[in-house]
Design a protein that fits this description.
The complex is a heterodimer. By secondary structure, chain A is mainly alpha-helical. Chain A has one domain: Orthogonal Bundle (Arc Repressor Mutant, subunit A), CATH 1.10.10.10. In chain A, 70% of the residues lie in helices and 5% in strands. In chain A, β1 and β2 form a beta hairpin. In chain A, α1 runs antiparallel to α4 and α1 crosses α5. The longest helix of chain A has 46 residues. The radius of gyration of chain A is 24 Å and the shape is elongated. The N and C termini of chain A lie far apart (81 Å). Chain B is α+β, with helices and mostly antiparallel strands. In chain B, 24% of the residues lie in helices and 40% in strands. An eight-stranded antiparallel beta sheet of chain B has the order 1-2-8-7-6-5-4-3. Chain B is globular, with a radius of gyration of 17 Å. The relative contact order of chain B is 0.18. Classes of the chains: A mainly alpha, B alpha+beta. At the A-B interface, α1 and α5 of A face β2, α1, α3 and α4 of B.
């Protein structure tokens, strides 16, 4: 089955983030990032049953994050990079807004600490 | 020399369906960082969003049950937007918990924001955890952050830098 469209609709992003919210699913993606693997190969290192892994794979496939390979026998799963990139881009705008704020805060805190040191020195000199 | 970005990196994660968590290290003691987050004369100097905005209102009543109100205005006379809320817990210089709403609410209920300040070796790690009622509300909050001209202004800046 082909994954659903890649349009930047929030429904699609919801599916991506829901899929990513689970640690086992993130670990599965981590494994698939190193190369394709069958359900059996995925189940072994996680100490989980194949049906349990299949359930997680279904969520990842619905989000378009994982794709089924052509080999009918092994049915290997592959990672699909594009939805992940889109999810990252979506958060990036929010991150940039806050990064700007924190850079201003860096400057302010630097200034406040310099002022404090300066004040202490001036006080000492006056004594 | 080429600017390589800030010394400390801001991390934004979505650890669950309803949360946004931001973590950032600041080179200052927790007591000073706590002041920067709670004293209006300091808040006004950094909590501004994209360039070209300033705070027209920055009221803080720092006690449990006390309220805060922030309003930002675009310097070229554009529209304003604001947030308001109530302090639920104040533990200087380690922790603040507050409820938060947009002045023109686009979602029901309020976000619960926990800001923790952990000092180690003279530097302070700030962790802000924003918990929303539902996943849809959280996603809306992220999108609204982008809508308020942020993406547009960054795109513009990037274009100018590339053309430069």
């Amino acid at each position: 089955m082909e994954p659903i469209g890649y349009e930047l609709g929030s429904g699609h992003l919801d599916a991506t983030f829901m899929a990513l919210a689970d640690p086992t699913r993130r670990a599965i993606l981590g494994r698939l990032a190193r190369g394709e693997a069958s359900v059996a190969e995925l189940a072994a290192p996680f100490g989980m049953s194949q049906p349990a892994i299949s359930k997680h794979l279904k969520v990842l496939e619905r989000a378009g994050l994982v794709h089924q390979g052509r080999d009918a026998q092994r049915r290997p799963r592959r990672i699909e990079a594009r939805p992940l990139e889109e999810a990252t881009k979506w958060l990036e705008g929010y991150r940039k807004l806050w990064e700007t704020n924190f850079q201003r805060l860096d400057a302010l805190l630097g200034e406040l600490q310099t002022d404090a040191t300066h004040r202490r020195r001036t006080k000492r000199r006056k004594k | 020399m080429e600017y390589s970005g800030p010394k400390h990196k801001l991390e934004v994660t979505l650890p669950s369906e309803r949360e946004i968590v931001m973590t950032r290290v600041l080179d200052a003691p927790a007591r000073l960082v706590f002041d920067a987050f709670t004293k209006p004369e300091l808040i006004r100097r950094w909590l501004l969003g994209p360039d070209g905005f300033s705070m027209s209102v920055c009221d803080v009543d720092l006690r449990v049950g006390g309220k805060f109100h922030y309003v930002w205005r675009k310097d070229d006379g554009g529209r304003e937007f604001g947030i308001n809320g109530t302090y639920r817990e104040i533990a200087p210089p380690a922790r603040i918990v507050h409820g938060e709403n947009f002045d023109e609410p686009f979602y029901p209920g309020e976000a619960q924001v926990t800001t923790a300040f952990a000092e180690k070796g003279g530097a302070t790690t700030v962790t802000m955890t924003m918990a929303f009622d539902t996943r849809e509300i959280r996603d809306g909050a992220i999108e609204s952050g982008m809508e308020s001209g942020i993406v547009a202004s960054y795109d513009r800046l990037e274009r100018i830098l590339q053309e430069g």
